[in-house]
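Predict both folds.
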Amino acid sequence: SIGGVIGTGLFLGTAGALRTGGPIGLLLGYIIVGSICYSVMISLGEMIAYLPIPGGHIKLAERFVDPALSFTMGWNYWYNWTIILPAELAAAAVLINYWMDGRINDSLWISICLIVTVVINML
């Protein structure tokens, strides 16, 4: 699903990369990183097809490498998803303030976006 990988970082990060590397640099960067991501996803799909076990990629690390790696990946996965909401809220506030010319404080936009997110998740 393309919607699961496109976040506000795409819009914020693309601007800096375009300014620094230009259009060719941006395109080459996306091609290189996209090729790496594609290779990782194909490899993960092959491992799941070979050994379909419950637990996803965390359990695959335990099976193919070491239980310590699985433990570490589990904690890193948890940490990633606890940090992503505040990061996305801050990025959303930056994008909204760009359109609003900075007339309203970021904390108000972060609060509004957080309330909307909580309400949607409570439905």
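Second protein follows, with its predicted structure tokens after the sequence.
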Amino acid sequence: MPKICHVIARLNVGGPAVHVIQMSHHLRREGLDVSVVKGMESATEGDLMEMASAWGVEPIVLRDLGREISPLGDLKTLWKLARLLRSMRPDLVHTHTAKAGTLGRIAARLAGVKAVVHTFHGHVLSGYFSKTKSAVILWIERILARSTTRVVTLTEIQRREIVGLGIGGDRVVTLPLGMDLTPYENLDERRGRLRLELAAGDRFLVGLVARLVPIKRVEDFIEAAQLVTLRTESMRFLIVGDGELRVALERKAHGLGLGEDQLSFLGFRDDLETIYADLDLLVLCSANEGSPVAIMEAMASGVPVVATAVGGVPDLVADGETGVLVPAGDPHALAEAIRELHAAPELRRRLAAAGRERIVATHGLDRVVPQYATFYRELITAEAGA
């Protein structure tokens, strides 16, 4: 039975962790022996350990594999990870996220693993760090790609960007983010619960589901909410998620005169199906993204989407067909798109139906798991014979 080891910095709330957990479970059903190695999550970002346990995934924890950079600690972690992989003897190591991608790929080669794969879940080379730090990361990624059997991007747009930056060349392939969409496909029995909880009545509910971190540009959502509520009282804005910026964002909302009845911070929720069941519109206003899970969940739930045209988003949201795209960093354009969709119920229905059809056809686990299983098997076979 082929042995696969995923290495990820942390199983925090977000797309990479959901993908690794759910794919690990289903790939075992495809006859693969799959294990997961992870670091520790920070106190502000939440973790998905309960989800991992529910899916039968019990990760091996290397505490210092987490996101924070510590030269001495990272060297120790590299040594520990190399020893662990040497004892596990996987046929293929698949790394995710920047730090785990660096330490994991080096450790895999030190351990003699023949097939090494890395996935770019987002685009850490733009929007996350300073220009200097981004340049250093780009240099590192170019070097690492030379010893990476395959570099995976989640969308064709990402693939072109990565290759254009001199990373990987013909080693770069596109495989979609896969996740279990079935919980979002029939939400009738959940409808009304969120509205009752918030005493929202029949108001138009506009939601953002995200970690509250700089790359998500939640401040643009708050400014758009203020612009919209200046003209109408029929909408209510909801922020679902938590993170390092929560206090600052709450302060910003208060400073703009947005009360709880206009904009609510709901924190982390483990009942996202209940959220999507009552949302009239989902907004994503990030500065960069790979394949945002929130968009996929909303589309599967039949919720229309307004999103920024960044990263891999346009591969999910075809403007005017499966959603509406706006420029990043433009709260006025965001507010205008929200107002236009609020006033066009038939357009919302059409976008929602097309979005649901598209996402289920391309990102459901029944479509994606066989692609990855074939990809792993072919790569392991090819490297074994090399």
